[in-house]
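Q: What residues go here?
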Protein backbone atom coordinates (compact mmCIF):
# COMPACT_ATOMS: atom_id res chain seq x y z
CA UNK A 1 0.00 0.00 0.00
CA UNK A 2 1.53 3.28 -1.05
CA UNK A 3 1.40 6.49 0.97
CA UNK A 4 -0.97 7.88 -1.59
CA UNK A 5 -3.57 5.14 -1.15
CA UNK A 6 -3.30 4.48 2.58
CA UNK A 7 -6.29 5.50 4.64
CA UNK A 8 -6.48 7.22 7.97
CA UNK A 9 -6.55 4.63 10.77
CA UNK A 10 -9.37 6.39 12.54
CA UNK A 11 -11.52 6.04 9.43
CA UNK A 12 -10.82 2.38 8.74
CA UNK A 13 -10.57 0.97 12.24
CA UNK A 14 -7.18 -0.47 11.32
CA UNK A 15 -3.84 0.34 12.97
CA UNK A 16 -2.05 3.58 12.19
CA UNK A 17 0.64 4.17 9.60
CA UNK A 18 3.48 2.68 11.63
CA UNK A 19 2.07 -0.79 12.17
CA UNK A 20 3.96 -3.32 10.09
CA UNK A 21 7.53 -4.31 10.76
CA UNK A 22 9.64 -6.21 8.27
CA UNK A 23 8.16 -4.49 5.20
CA UNK A 24 9.55 -1.67 3.13
CA UNK A 25 8.15 1.67 4.26
CA UNK A 26 6.81 2.32 0.78
CA UNK A 27 4.58 -0.76 1.29
CA UNK A 28 2.63 0.81 4.12
CA UNK A 29 2.96 4.60 4.04
CA UNK A 30 6.11 4.78 6.11
CA UNK A 31 6.86 6.54 9.32
CA UNK A 32 8.83 9.68 9.74
CA UNK A 33 10.84 10.12 12.85
CA UNK A 34 11.28 13.69 13.32
CA UNK A 35 13.86 15.69 14.90
CA UNK A 36 12.56 19.04 15.94
CA UNK A 37 14.12 21.63 13.72
CA UNK A 38 13.61 24.60 15.97
CA UNK A 39 15.58 23.20 18.89
CA UNK A 40 19.35 23.13 19.09
CA UNK A 41 19.11 19.54 20.31
CA UNK A 42 17.53 18.24 17.13
CA UNK A 43 19.62 16.62 14.44
CA UNK A 44 18.04 18.48 11.61
CA UNK A 45 18.55 21.80 13.32
CA UNK A 46 22.26 21.38 12.74
CA UNK A 47 21.39 23.18 9.52
CA UNK A 48 21.00 26.33 11.57
CA UNK A 49 24.69 26.38 12.40
CA UNK A 50 25.82 27.63 9.02
CA UNK A 51 22.99 28.72 6.73
CA UNK A 52 23.66 29.22 3.05
CA UNK A 53 24.05 32.78 1.76
CA UNK A 54 20.80 34.65 1.42
CA UNK A 55 19.70 35.34 -2.16
CA UNK A 56 17.49 38.18 -3.30
CA UNK A 57 14.22 37.26 -4.99
CA UNK A 58 11.50 39.30 -6.62
CA UNK A 59 10.78 42.56 -4.90
CA UNK A 60 13.97 42.25 -2.87
CA UNK A 61 12.66 39.26 -0.86
CA UNK A 62 15.30 37.10 0.80
CA UNK A 63 15.23 33.51 -0.45
CA UNK A 64 16.76 30.49 1.24
CA UNK A 65 16.84 26.76 0.45
CA UNK A 66 14.35 24.27 1.85
CA UNK A 67 14.47 20.52 1.23
CA UNK A 68 11.41 18.28 1.10
CA UNK A 69 11.71 14.57 1.89
CA UNK A 70 8.99 12.66 0.05
CA UNK A 71 7.41 9.26 -0.44
CA UNK A 72 7.93 8.25 -4.05
CA UNK A 73 9.40 11.43 -5.50
CA UNK A 74 12.85 11.69 -3.99
CA UNK A 75 14.22 14.88 -2.45
CA UNK A 76 12.73 18.11 -3.73
CA UNK A 77 14.71 21.35 -3.47
CA UNK A 78 12.79 24.62 -3.13
CA UNK A 79 13.48 28.15 -1.99
CA UNK A 80 11.39 29.94 0.59
CA UNK A 81 10.71 33.61 1.13
CA UNK A 82 12.10 34.41 4.59
CA UNK A 83 9.26 36.88 5.23
CA UNK A 84 6.21 35.05 3.91
CA UNK A 85 7.40 31.44 3.77
CA UNK A 86 6.25 31.12 0.14
CA UNK A 87 7.94 28.14 -1.56
CA UNK A 88 9.22 27.90 -5.14
CA UNK A 89 10.34 24.58 -6.57
CA UNK A 90 13.88 24.47 -7.95
CA UNK A 91 14.93 20.87 -8.63
CA UNK A 92 14.58 17.25 -7.49
CA UNK A 93 16.84 14.27 -6.90
CA UNK A 94 14.68 11.22 -7.57
CA UNK A 95 17.23 8.39 -7.43
CA UNK A 96 16.54 7.70 -3.76
CA UNK A 97 13.64 5.69 -2.31
CA UNK A 98 11.31 7.31 0.22
CA UNK A 99 13.79 9.78 1.79
CA UNK A 100 11.21 10.64 4.42
CA UNK A 101 13.65 12.27 6.80
CA UNK A 102 16.56 14.62 6.14
CA UNK A 103 19.32 16.27 8.16
CA UNK A 104 22.15 18.66 7.39
CA UNK A 105 25.77 18.46 8.53
CA UNK A 106 26.95 21.08 11.04
CA UNK A 107 28.87 22.81 8.25
CA UNK A 108 25.72 23.18 6.18
CA UNK A 109 27.28 21.73 3.02
CA UNK A 110 26.11 18.10 3.18
CA UNK A 111 22.58 16.73 3.26
CA UNK A 112 21.79 13.30 4.73
CA UNK A 113 18.77 11.22 3.76
CA UNK A 114 17.12 7.88 4.36
CA UNK A 115 16.91 5.34 1.54
CA UNK A 116 14.47 2.44 1.83
CA UNK A 117 15.14 0.73 -1.50
CA UNK A 118 16.24 -2.58 0.04
CA UNK A 119 15.16 -5.08 2.69
CA UNK A 120 17.38 -3.19 5.10
CA UNK A 121 17.28 0.55 5.37
CA UNK A 122 20.18 2.74 4.32
CA UNK A 123 21.50 6.26 4.79
CA UNK A 124 23.04 8.47 2.13
CA UNK A 125 24.94 11.74 1.81
CA UNK A 126 24.71 14.50 -0.80
CA UNK A 127 26.76 17.60 -1.34
CA UNK A 128 24.67 20.75 -1.54
CA UNK A 129 25.57 22.83 -4.56
CA UNK A 130 24.42 26.09 -6.08
CA UNK A 131 20.69 26.61 -5.76
CA UNK A 132 20.45 23.58 -3.47
CA UNK A 133 21.30 21.10 -6.22
CA UNK A 134 22.25 17.71 -4.79
CA UNK A 135 25.15 15.48 -5.84
CA UNK A 136 25.57 11.97 -4.32
CA UNK A 137 28.52 11.77 -1.96
CA UNK A 138 29.60 8.15 -1.69
CA UNK A 139 27.38 5.05 -1.62
CA UNK A 140 24.31 4.26 0.46
CA UNK A 141 25.18 2.49 3.72
CA UNK A 142 23.01 -0.14 5.37
CA UNK A 143 21.58 0.69 8.79
CA UNK A 144 21.32 -3.02 9.65
CA UNK A 145 17.54 -2.99 10.16
CA UNK A 146 14.30 -2.73 8.21
CA UNK A 147 12.39 0.49 7.60
CA UNK A 148 14.84 3.18 8.67
CA UNK A 149 12.71 6.11 9.78
CA UNK A 150 14.99 8.73 11.30
CA UNK A 151 18.54 10.00 11.25
CA UNK A 152 20.53 12.73 12.94
CA UNK A 153 24.05 14.08 12.93
CA UNK A 154 26.02 14.03 16.16
CA UNK A 155 26.96 17.65 17.03
CA UNK A 156 30.67 16.85 16.68
CA UNK A 157 29.99 16.10 13.02
CA UNK A 158 31.85 12.78 12.96
CA UNK A 159 28.96 10.30 13.25
CA UNK A 160 25.55 9.80 11.71
CA UNK A 161 22.86 8.16 13.87
CA UNK A 162 19.82 6.28 12.56
CA UNK A 163 16.69 4.51 13.87
CA UNK A 164 15.08 1.47 12.23
CA UNK A 165 11.35 1.44 12.90
CA UNK A 166 10.62 -1.97 11.40
CA UNK A 167 13.75 -3.58 12.79
CA UNK A 168 13.44 -2.00 16.24
CA UNK A 169 17.12 -1.08 16.26
CA UNK A 170 19.49 1.90 16.16
CA UNK A 171 22.80 2.38 14.40
CA UNK A 172 25.77 4.72 14.11
CA UNK A 173 27.98 5.38 11.08
CA UNK A 174 31.32 7.13 10.90
CA UNK A 175 31.44 10.23 8.69
CA UNK A 176 34.40 10.81 6.39
CA UNK A 177 36.35 14.03 6.19
CA UNK A 178 34.25 15.32 3.30
CA UNK A 179 31.00 14.43 5.06
CA UNK A 180 30.33 11.13 3.32
CA UNK A 181 28.84 8.18 5.19
CA UNK A 182 31.43 5.58 6.14
CA UNK A 183 31.25 2.20 7.82
CA UNK A 184 28.62 1.31 10.40
CA UNK A 185 30.33 1.53 13.78
CA UNK A 186 27.50 0.88 16.22
CA UNK A 187 24.31 -1.17 16.31
CA UNK A 188 21.86 -1.96 19.12
CA UNK A 189 18.81 -4.20 18.83
CA UNK A 190 15.90 -3.26 21.11
CA UNK A 191 13.68 -5.96 22.64
CA UNK A 192 10.28 -5.97 24.27
CA UNK A 193 6.72 -4.95 23.44
CA UNK A 194 3.80 -2.90 24.69
CA UNK A 195 0.11 -3.40 25.48
CA UNK A 196 -1.20 -2.42 22.02
CA UNK A 197 -1.12 -5.71 20.03
CA UNK A 198 -1.32 -4.03 16.63
CA UNK A 199 1.21 -1.28 17.18
CA UNK A 200 3.47 -2.60 19.93
CA UNK A 201 3.99 -6.26 19.10
CA UNK A 202 7.72 -5.60 19.17
CA UNK A 203 10.25 -2.76 19.30
CA UNK A 204 9.85 0.14 16.85
CA UNK A 205 12.65 2.67 17.18
CA UNK A 206 11.19 5.90 15.85
CA UNK A 207 13.79 8.58 16.52
CA UNK A 208 17.43 8.99 17.51
CA UNK A 209 18.87 12.30 18.70
CA UNK A 210 21.33 13.86 21.13
CA UNK A 211 21.00 16.32 23.98
CA UNK A 212 21.96 19.96 23.27
CA UNK A 213 25.60 19.38 24.21
CA UNK A 214 25.94 16.02 22.49
CA UNK A 215 26.77 14.25 25.74
CA UNK A 216 24.24 11.44 25.32
CA UNK A 217 22.26 9.79 22.53
CA UNK A 218 18.54 9.00 22.91
CA UNK A 219 16.36 6.51 21.05
CA UNK A 220 12.58 6.89 21.25
CA UNK A 221 10.87 3.51 20.81
CA UNK A 222 7.13 3.44 20.14
CA UNK A 223 6.87 -0.34 20.41
CA UNK A 224 8.40 -0.76 23.86
CA UNK A 225 7.10 2.44 25.48
CA UNK A 226 10.65 3.50 26.32
CA UNK A 227 13.23 6.18 25.68
CA UNK A 228 16.71 4.65 25.75
CA UNK A 229 19.82 6.60 26.73
CA UNK A 230 23.14 5.71 25.10
CA UNK A 231 26.62 7.11 25.19
CA UNK A 232 28.41 7.34 21.85
CA UNK A 233 32.05 6.31 21.97
CA UNK A 234 33.45 9.05 19.75
CA UNK A 235 36.58 7.01 19.03
CA UNK A 236 35.09 3.62 18.10
CA UNK A 237 31.62 4.86 17.17
CA UNK A 238 29.95 2.25 19.39
CA UNK A 239 26.68 2.95 21.20
CA UNK A 240 26.84 2.06 24.90
CA UNK A 241 23.53 1.54 26.78
CA UNK A 242 23.17 3.81 29.82
CA UNK A 243 19.55 3.82 31.04
CA UNK A 244 15.88 3.53 30.06
CA UNK A 245 12.88 5.76 30.78
CA UNK A 246 9.43 4.15 30.72
CA UNK A 247 6.40 5.91 29.28
CA UNK A 248 2.80 5.40 30.33
CA UNK A 249 1.93 1.87 29.10
CA UNK A 250 0.46 2.09 25.62
CA UNK A 251 1.48 5.74 25.13
CA UNK A 252 3.68 4.93 22.14
CA UNK A 253 6.44 7.55 22.42
CA UNK A 254 7.38 8.76 18.95
CA UNK A 255 9.44 11.97 18.97
CA UNK A 256 11.32 13.97 21.56
CA UNK A 257 12.89 17.41 21.72
CA UNK A 258 15.08 18.97 24.38
CA UNK A 259 14.55 22.39 25.87
CA UNK A 260 17.40 24.57 24.53
CA UNK A 261 18.68 25.60 27.97
CA UNK A 262 16.70 23.96 30.82
CA UNK A 263 17.20 20.29 31.79
CA UNK A 264 13.93 19.01 30.34
CA UNK A 265 12.74 17.12 27.30
CA UNK A 266 9.28 16.87 25.71
CA UNK A 267 8.01 13.57 24.27
CA UNK A 268 5.15 13.31 21.76
CA UNK A 269 3.18 10.11 22.41
CA UNK A 270 1.52 8.84 19.25
CA UNK A 271 -0.85 6.22 20.63
CA UNK A 272 -2.53 8.06 23.52
CA UNK A 273 -2.39 11.58 22.04
CA UNK A 274 -0.36 13.17 24.83
CA UNK A 275 2.87 15.04 25.35
CA UNK A 276 5.06 14.25 28.34
CA UNK A 277 7.66 16.33 30.16
CA UNK A 278 10.80 14.52 31.24
CA UNK A 279 13.36 15.90 33.66
CA UNK A 280 16.87 15.37 32.34
CA UNK A 281 19.90 14.63 34.49
CA UNK A 282 22.70 16.10 32.41
CA UNK A 283 25.35 14.27 34.44
CA UNK A 284 23.98 10.73 34.07
CA UNK A 285 21.80 10.99 30.96
CA UNK A 286 18.76 9.70 32.87
CA UNK A 287 15.25 10.89 32.02
CA UNK A 288 12.45 10.99 34.60
CA UNK A 289 8.87 11.28 33.38
CA UNK A 290 6.72 14.02 34.88
CA UNK A 291 3.66 15.84 33.58
CA UNK A 292 1.60 14.43 30.69
CA UNK A 293 -1.23 16.29 29.00
CA UNK A 294 -3.46 15.94 25.92
CA UNK A 295 -2.32 17.49 22.63
CA UNK A 296 -5.80 18.61 21.54
CA UNK A 297 -8.44 20.68 23.37
CA UNK A 298 -10.79 18.84 25.72
CA UNK A 299 -13.60 17.10 23.83
CA UNK A 300 -12.12 17.45 20.36
CA UNK A 301 -10.55 14.01 20.45
CA UNK A 302 -13.94 12.29 20.65
CA UNK A 303 -14.84 12.89 17.02
CA UNK A 304 -11.63 11.60 15.51
CA UNK A 305 -8.68 9.62 16.82
CA UNK A 306 -5.52 11.68 16.95
CA UNK A 307 -1.89 10.67 16.44
CA UNK A 308 0.73 13.24 17.50
CA UNK A 309 3.75 13.28 15.21
CA UNK A 310 6.47 15.95 15.39
CA UNK A 311 7.42 18.19 18.30
CA UNK A 312 9.69 21.22 18.31
CA UNK A 313 10.56 24.09 20.63
CA UNK A 314 11.29 27.76 20.03
CA UNK A 315 14.91 28.87 20.32
CA UNK A 316 14.10 30.88 23.46
CA UNK A 317 12.43 27.85 25.06
CA UNK A 318 9.14 29.65 25.69
CA UNK A 319 6.90 27.66 23.31
CA UNK A 320 6.52 24.06 22.17
CA UNK A 321 4.77 23.16 18.92
CA UNK A 322 3.36 19.73 18.03
CA UNK A 323 1.67 18.36 14.91
CA UNK A 324 -1.60 16.44 15.33
CA UNK A 325 -2.54 13.86 12.68
CA UNK A 326 -6.27 13.19 12.75
CA UNK A 327 -7.07 16.48 14.44
CA UNK A 328 -5.08 17.98 11.50
CA UNK A 329 -3.64 20.78 13.55
CA UNK A 330 -0.57 22.34 15.11
CA UNK A 331 -0.76 22.67 18.89
CA UNK A 332 0.96 25.54 20.70
CA UNK A 333 2.07 25.06 24.30
CA UNK A 334 3.55 27.58 26.70
CA UNK A 335 6.56 26.40 28.70
CA UNK A 336 6.36 27.24 32.40
CA UNK A 337 7.99 26.23 35.67
CA UNK A 338 11.46 26.71 34.30
CA UNK A 339 10.74 24.08 31.63
CA UNK A 340 9.04 21.56 33.92
CA UNK A 341 5.47 22.21 32.78
CA UNK A 342 3.49 22.77 29.60
CA UNK A 343 0.11 24.41 29.04
CA UNK A 344 -1.91 23.97 25.85
CA UNK A 345 -2.70 27.42 24.49
CA UNK A 346 -4.45 26.62 21.22
CA UNK A 347 -4.42 24.69 17.97
CA UNK A 348 -4.50 25.93 14.38
CA UNK A 349 -5.38 23.94 11.23
CA UNK A 350 -2.23 22.42 9.76
CA UNK A 351 -2.91 23.48 6.18
CA UNK A 352 -3.43 19.94 4.92
CA UNK A 353 -4.14 16.35 5.88
CA UNK A 354 -1.88 14.31 8.17
CA UNK A 355 0.84 16.79 9.29
CA UNK A 356 3.68 14.33 9.65
CA UNK A 357 6.40 16.87 10.28
CA UNK A 358 6.83 20.50 11.24
CA UNK A 359 9.86 22.73 11.51
CA UNK A 360 10.86 26.23 12.46
CA UNK A 361 13.01 28.31 10.14
CA UNK A 362 16.49 29.22 11.43
CA UNK A 363 15.24 32.71 12.28
CA UNK A 364 12.26 31.32 14.20
CA UNK A 365 9.97 33.68 12.30
CA UNK A 366 8.31 30.92 10.26
CA UNK A 367 6.91 27.47 10.93
CA UNK A 368 6.32 24.91 8.16
CA UNK A 369 4.14 21.80 8.18
CA UNK A 370 4.67 18.79 5.90
CA UNK A 371 1.22 17.32 5.27
CA UNK A 372 1.74 13.74 4.16
CA UNK A 373 -1.74 12.86 2.85
CA UNK A 374 -2.61 16.41 1.80
CA UNK A 375 0.57 16.64 -0.33
CA UNK A 376 1.18 20.19 0.86
CA UNK A 377 3.61 22.35 2.77
CA UNK A 378 1.90 25.07 4.78
CA UNK A 379 3.72 28.16 6.09
CA UNK A 380 2.88 30.13 9.25
CA UNK A 381 4.33 33.32 10.63
CA UNK A 382 5.32 33.15 14.31
CA UNK A 383 4.54 36.02 16.66
CA UNK A 384 7.73 36.70 18.61
CA UNK A 385 5.95 37.63 21.83
CA UNK A 386 3.05 35.20 22.01
CA UNK A 387 4.34 32.37 19.83
CA UNK A 388 0.99 32.46 17.98
CA UNK A 389 0.86 31.02 14.47
CA UNK A 390 -0.81 32.79 11.55
CA UNK A 391 -1.26 31.05 8.15
CA UNK A 392 0.80 32.77 5.45
CA UNK A 393 -0.52 32.37 1.93
CA UNK A 394 -1.91 29.23 0.34
CA UNK A 395 -0.27 25.86 1.09
CA UNK A 396 2.33 24.75 -1.45
CA UNK A 397 1.13 21.75 -3.48
CA UNK A 398 3.72 19.00 -3.85
CA UNK A 399 4.21 15.25 -3.24
CA UNK A 400 3.38 13.01 -0.29
CA UNK A 401 5.72 14.35 2.37
CA UNK A 402 7.67 13.10 5.32
CA UNK A 403 9.88 16.09 6.08
CA UNK A 404 10.35 19.80 5.45
CA UNK A 405 13.84 21.12 6.21
CA UNK A 406 14.47 24.88 5.84
CA UNK A 407 18.06 26.06 6.12
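A:
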Amino acid sequence: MSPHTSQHPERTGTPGPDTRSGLGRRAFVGVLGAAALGAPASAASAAHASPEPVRAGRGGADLRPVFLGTYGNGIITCTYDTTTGALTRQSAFTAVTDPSFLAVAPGGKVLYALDNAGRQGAVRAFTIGAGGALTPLGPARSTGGANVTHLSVHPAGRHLLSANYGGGSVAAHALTGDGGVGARTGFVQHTGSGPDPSRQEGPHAHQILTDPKGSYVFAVDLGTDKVYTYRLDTVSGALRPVSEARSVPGAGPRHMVFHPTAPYAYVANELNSTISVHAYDTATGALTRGQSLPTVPAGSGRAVRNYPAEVTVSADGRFVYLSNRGHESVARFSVTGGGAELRLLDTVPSGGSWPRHLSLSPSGALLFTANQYGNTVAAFTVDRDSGALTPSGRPFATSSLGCVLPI
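A: Context that may help when evaluating the design: The chain is about 0% helix and 45% strand. The two ends are 32 Å apart (CA to CA).
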